[in-house]
């Protein structure tokens, strides 16, 4: 769940005003990377690995607190493993995908002080034809969510009007998906609720494109998602390593014996 992506948006408002004059043309491409180091894989290749710090631990604790309040249960495990267990509990207790999505949206909404989102949607979102808010959201996501998703960077994307803008975020290998090993968790607790939250509560269109073959994900702020009936990510089968899928397989085997 790409939660906390806009916690710092309102702090960026003043520094971003100087860019308003250039928003009528193509936005400049800006690379954003932080607190990452290169590590070697077993096959000899290298990748960037995000090293969580003190602020990240605060963000994770705050998010976990809000999630446990919604679920009504907390894991005995500490850290990221405990967070994933709470997410799994959310998946098990809700009766439908819609209920899971609605719970995730409520969690996202609970992360913000009252009226902050209202003011952002009214005052910031319309500026520069929405490009300012989209760029702010991209930078806030890359800065505040790497503890959840792993190494991420701001990149340039194509907008529906034919221009390009640095309002994208590329997640190299999503930790949330890699640790949960579940397409359902990715779709129902992250992709769909995050898209809904940004559009409904912040006035920012967002289209997320998870790639399940390599666990990467592309955030496209300022781009409306396609209809759910034509979104290819929603038609992806379970991963072979999915714990829930494997439990279903074992259950089916036991019932046929």
UniProtKB/TrEMBL annotation:
Checking InterPro entries in the record gives: D27-like (IPR038938), D27-like_C (IPR025114)
Descriptive protein name? Chloroplast carotenoid isomerase
- Pfam families recorded: D27-like_C (PF13225)
Q: Which GO terms describe its molecular function?
A: iron ion binding; isomerase activity
The UniProt gene name for this protein comes to D27
Organism per entry:
Nervilia fordii
Q: Which UniProt keywords apply?
A: Isomerase
Asked if the keyword Transmembrane helix belongs to this entry, the reply reads no
Q: Where is the Beta-carotene isomerase D27-like C-terminal domain?
A: 147-228
